[in-house]
Amino acid sequence: MTIRDRLLIFVGLGLAIAADLFLIWGPTLASVGLSTTDWDGISAINVVGAENYHDLAAEYPPFWSAVTNNLLWLAFLGLVATPLGLLFAVLLDRRLRFSRVYQSALYTPVVLSLAVVGFIAQLVYSSDYGVLNAVTGLTTDWLGDPSLNIWVVMVAAAWRHIGYVMIIYLAGLKAVDPSLKEAAAIDGANEAQAFFRVVFPTLRPINVIVLVITVIEALRAFDIVYAINKGRNGLELLSVLVTENIVGEASRIGFGSAIATVLLVISLGFIVTYLTQLFREPR
Amino acid sequence: MSPHVTRRDLLLGAAAFGVPAILAGCSNPATRTTAPTSTAAAGRGVVTIGSNASDEIPKKSLDEVTKAFTSHDVKINTVDHNTFQENINRYLRGTPDDVFTWFAGYRMQFFAAQGLATDISDVWTEIGGDYTDAFKAASTGADGKQYFVPFTYYPWAVFYRKSLWQEKGYTPPATLDDLVALAKKMKADGLVPIAFADKDGWPAMGTFDILNMRINGYDFHINLMAGQEAWTDPKVKQVFDTWRGLMDYHQPAALGRTWQEAGQSLAQKKTGMYLLGMFVAQQFPEADRGDIDFFTFPEVNPQFGTDSIDAPIDGYMISSKAKNVEGAKQLLKHLGQASSQNIATKLDPGTLAASSKADTSGYSDLQKRGAELVSQAKHIAQFLDRDTRPDFASTVMIPSLQRFVGKPNDIDGLLKDIEKQKVNIFTS
Q: Is this entry keyworded Transmembrane helix (chain A) (predicted)?
């Protein structure tokens, strides 16, 4: 290594690390720090210790519905939407008639932003003007009933997620060596066995990507519920509560930071699990 | 480094300089579109206005009004209405305009108390004679000084269609019992008696306000809003109990409906009446607007009668960081003139002029009735989210009222939760 190389590595890597510390870890730690204060953005900063966390857990009803909704969202995307995406990918990979048509129909929602999906969901689910009630003759308040709305919104979110997962798996399936399947067939494996024992394991890198995407989508969910009713009344999510408390006129920066810290801890749980899995692998 | 600039060097350089640029870009959350309205000759100083009048009609009316202000050049920075409100804290602490649009009452006092507004008591010594005491009180900070010039306002009342009521023979109720009897009759006639929507979170505040003022009076309401009364007080419980008794006559599935949709149901004669601000007229086709009438929410407790209403006042303040305070004060005096406000009320039939000197001869029938209603009211409240702390209104009251609308039966649990959060917020 020449001096020039070392210098470049030092500058190049150093800048990246400095930017990472400054832009990501700096604000993160600042949020954690602020979460122990009652700062309102204007007056002096008072340290109140863990009070915000106590208030959150004990006295702020939207908090627990947000935590439940976030976990529900994760479970729904992970256990319903993602397997469905895989199923559609497998079906389309069999070169059915019109598979191009199915493929584009399933993939089209992915090009929409979730906020737009939220507006479409309102056209479908609105109790007075929605398509669903008009067609079925029901009078259900799909978006207003807090025990119901999270489910129909997750269906709308899944509508988009399925296409996303499907296209990734489809690409993965196209790359699977056909001779593997032939070999399995010759060895007497039926289709299910061939898929679960032979094809699915070779998709491992794809699975990891899909898992990460699913977790990220679930934790960052925001736009769809915000477009529908600002994430209130049954559609609370942690990301919405952070925004509601910090960004809005309320300016409860300390309190909102505490919610953000909870979201950070949940995210870190998944990130750490994922990274340890990833680094353990080669050994 | 080597004298030759390589592509990598360039990228590094770009990264190094790009970062601060991105940060600078982030530090100004209120993205503003500039629509300068210059008047007459330059060189006499400029007054800037930060305006939330992003809708077409209010925007046009502010343009017209400032055109008549000739002593300074006026520059209007219009921001989307909700964005303006949500960023108000950062805006006032950052580089605010000289004059900014805002709301009367606690919401004004909150920022005045933080030292973010300029005392304009001297403006009031000049314009004070044009305003009633109620308007002056709504413009006065907790320290007794004035910080706000009222411009326009609109009353909240129960709106209905004259033609429908004539056809069915309904008459405006005078008491709560009359209201219930009327609602029963409407139900029998196949109408939904009371239009209702709370998807937006704030319309239910209007119902809470009026019931609280009818049952417990204006003073209790204001103290409750200021955090000085307990939400667990039996008086508050009575408000929710009364409301629950009326729920049967409210339009169901309110949490999935916007006020616009509820307003249209009134226009389409599917619902009988609707408690909302005068802006409900916007949801009526132009031709039907003459058919709108209203009555004030009926008496519940004879001790208070119908002496209070919600009539939120919009107006102007001067930021504490104003560069041209003298010009800003002159502009405020101009905005406080009846003639300026008349320009606005002519363009926007959903509002009334705040000045008592305003010319009401150009008012529509609805405006005339509105002005009459307000002049009869002894107390004018500003609406829940303007009469209390913004953080309490948005993070506690919106979810709580929605919870009540969804499940009207758990009043005790609800009030306990509100009280706990109120203590947290008001003592912080």
A: yes
**DSSP codes joined into one string, B326-395:** HHHHHHHHHHTSHHHHHHHHHH-TT-EESSTT---TT--HHHHHHHHHHHH-SEEE--HHHHS-HHHIII
d(CA B425, CA B428): 5
Q: Which residue in B199, B265, B390 is closest to A229 by CB distance?
A: B199
Residue contacts between A and B (CB atoms, under 8 Å): 115
Nearest neighbour of B428 by CB, restricted to A7, A11, A38: A38
A165-185 pLDDT tens trace: 999 999 999 888 889 888 988
- Fold designation for B156-310+389-427: D-Maltodextrin-Binding Protein; domain 2 (3.40.190)
**Option in B265, B402, B421 nearest A232 (CB):** B402
Structural tokens at position A175: 């790359």
Distance CA(A89)–CA(A171), nearest Å, equals 9
- Pairwise CA distance, residues A208 & A274, whole Å: 9
How is chain B split into domains, by residue range? 33-153+313-374, 156-310+389-427
- Encoded tokens for B54: 């992003």
Listed as ranges, residues in chain B with pLDDT below 70 are 1-43, 428
C-alpha distance from A28 to closest chain B C-alpha (Å)? 16
This model of the complex carries an ipTM of 0.81
Structure tokens at B240: 């929710």
Are the CB atoms for B25 and B17 separated by under 8 Å? no
Task: State the nearest Cα–Cα gap between B418 and chain A, in angstroms.
Answer: 9
Give the helix/strand (H/E) hosting B315.
strand B313-318
Answer yes or no: are the C-beta atoms of A276 and A262 closer than 8 Å: no
The b/e string for B95-113 (b: 16+ C-beta within 10 A; e otherwise) is ebbbbbbbbbbbbbbbbbe
Q: Residue with structure tokens 């009334």?
A: B352
Cβ B197 vs Cβ B405: under 8 Å: no
Superfamily for domain range B33-153+313-374: Periplasmic binding protein-like II (3.40.190.10)
Beta bridge partners of B78: B33, B51
Domains and CATH numbers, chain A: 35-280 (1.10.3720.10)
Q: Burial, A262: exposed, middle or buried (Cβ in 10 Å; 0-12, 13-18, 19+)?
A: buried
